[in-house]
Amino acid sequence: EPEVTQTPSHQVTQMGQEVILRCVPISNHLYFYWYRQILGQKVEFLVSFYNNEISEKSEIFDDQFSVERPDGSNFTLKIRSTKLEDSAMYFCASSEVLNEQFFGPGTRLTVL
Amino acid sequence: GQNIDQPTEMTATEGAIVQINCTYQTSGFNGLFWYQQHAGEAPTFLSYNVLDGLEEKGRFSSFLSRSKGYSYLLLKELQMKDSASYLCAPTGFQKLVFGTGTRLLVSP
Fold this sequence. Notes:
In chain A, 0% of the residues lie in helices and 51% in strands. Chain A is an all-beta fold. Chain B contains no helices and 11 strands.
């Protein structure tokens, strides 16, 4: 069964450093998403991506964040200068159309 | 604005039936999803309602009333592995808007 994959599973970084989180969505899916979940809190939408551009983003997704689909398979989230409060689980998701979203296993980001 | 209300925690015994309610207010509505999330894991899809009424899928059923901003997830024949958080997520255009979820504890 096709699935969304994410790397790395755990990333530790120093405050102020740049991180890139990687995702491989399901191959025939057209919509891609990033969500985050701070420990003990709810899952929060960050951004959606369709047709090689951002289609919707939340207030959390400020200038420190960017997304890219550098090739036909990868979908990345970059945080330019990490802050302590960026520590969270980051989930990538994809969907065929505007329906069920399949989530990847997540990347746990720890900012020290 | 967006507001989703679910009970924080529920308990039930193995083999029983449990109903998890969700009320919501969202700007823009394209249907409502229910996801299951085990601790430390990603959400996994359970059900999707776009029209009013009941959708049944094995041991799980979900109901939607758009006019009332209300949904419920019904879990039958509870198993220990059903202990998890259940997330009600109305959709606003593309994004899923998650509530804090209902933590369900199933005991023997």
